[in-house]
Amino acid sequence: MPELPEVETVRSDLARLACGDEVVEVKVNENRVFRDDPSGGRDLVQMEGQFVSAVMRWGKYLILLVSPDQNYRPVQQFGRSIIPSVDWSDHAVTAVLLHLGMSGQILLLGDRAEDPRHLHLTIGLSSGTRIGFADTRTFGRVLVSSGMGAGPLNEIRHLGADPIQDPCGADLAFDRTSGSVSPIKAQLLDQGRICGVGNMYADEILIRAKVHPRTPGTNLSNRDISALKRSVYRVFEEAISLRGSSLKDMTYKDVSGQPGMFQERHLAYARAGRPCLICGDSIVKERFQNRYSHFCPNCQKLGPCD
Ligand SMILES: [Zn+2]
């Protein structure tokens, strides 16, 4: 599943390709991805004749803003204010919220002789660029709204701090982890606390911080919390610079169809049975809730507070 670094890579590519362009055509090929949208995707046609103002991200969500004013740009600020800073009172602004789900891909279609299978949405731009949303498993979702308080805002309102957009908020969220008995990995995966971390990056953050995935929050030392903060920024910044992680199933590729490279730097995820790159012990894979954790039992000991 694409996590924060993969979605950020897609966001920056999409912003470069689309910002300032007019939307000349919108095609909806499959309605399933609009299952949570009140209009069933019909409001997407409002984008035709309007201009792409911004491509934003919060956690694993992409937000495409279009406006009838070619020069309109939302005031983007770091921190929680990035979303409210959009002038939502201007009902002419249309916001399209995209979540890639398990296998969703945003693809540049312009140079392809044949469109990929499972293409659900196509947006044609005045530059000739065509952008597609393809998803083999259709767990991805698209919501569209114009005006304040409608679908997209409600969808993202519950999300916690994004570590890249809102590092101060993320620091506070990490400070609060010691107030809960929940295992630290469950807290990292809780999008209402810190958003953008999924199973893969949780394992990579935890091994670098030398914290066992099942450590109850109440057992975390101050050293652990400081290490987790350093680790989340280090992992995400490095993963973004390497354009995300592409595993063997290749469910994630960038908009040009190219894989990311951060999987080459993985210390734990998908490395079960291989030597830990820190100490040489074997990485183990263990059931964790409805998925698996990968960790080093030597570097990440499950013990009482230091
Ligand atoms: Zn180790």
Order of helices and strands: HEEEEEEEEHHHHHEE
- DSSP helical segment count: 6
Specify Rg, calculated over alpha carbons.
20 Å
Count of discrete domains: 2
Bound molecules: zinc ion
Shape: elongated
Overall pLDDT score: 88
| Broad structural category | alpha+beta
Largest sheet: 4 strands, antiparallel
List keywords for this structure.
306 residues, alpha+beta, N-terminal domain of MutM-like DNA repair proteins, Helicase, Ruva Protein, domain 3, four-stranded antiparallel β-sheet, 20% strand, binds zinc ion
Task: Describe the structure in your own words.
It is built from six helices and ten strands; from the N terminus they run H-E-E-E-E-E-E-E-E-H-H-H-H-H-E-E. By secondary structure, the chain is of the alpha+beta class. It folds into two domains: 4-157, N-terminal domain of MutM-like DNA repair proteins; 167-295, Helicase, Ruva Protein, domain 3 (Orthogonal Bundle), CATH 1.10.8. The two termini are 34 Å apart. The chain binds zinc ion. Zinc ion is lined by residues 276, 278-279, 281, 296, 298-299. Zinc ion (ZN) binds at residues 276, 278-279, 281, 296, 298-299.
Topology:
Layout: H1 4-18, E1 23-28, E2 51-58, E3 61-67, E4 94-99, E5 104-108, E6 119-125, E7 130-135, E8 141-146, H2 151-157, H3 167-176, H4 184-189, H5 199-209, H6 222-241, E9 284-288, E10 291-295
Antiparallel strand pairs: 1-6, 2-3, 3-4, 4-8, 5-7, 6-7, 9-10
Helix pairs in contact: 1-6, 3-6, 5-6
The structure holds zinc ion (ZN).
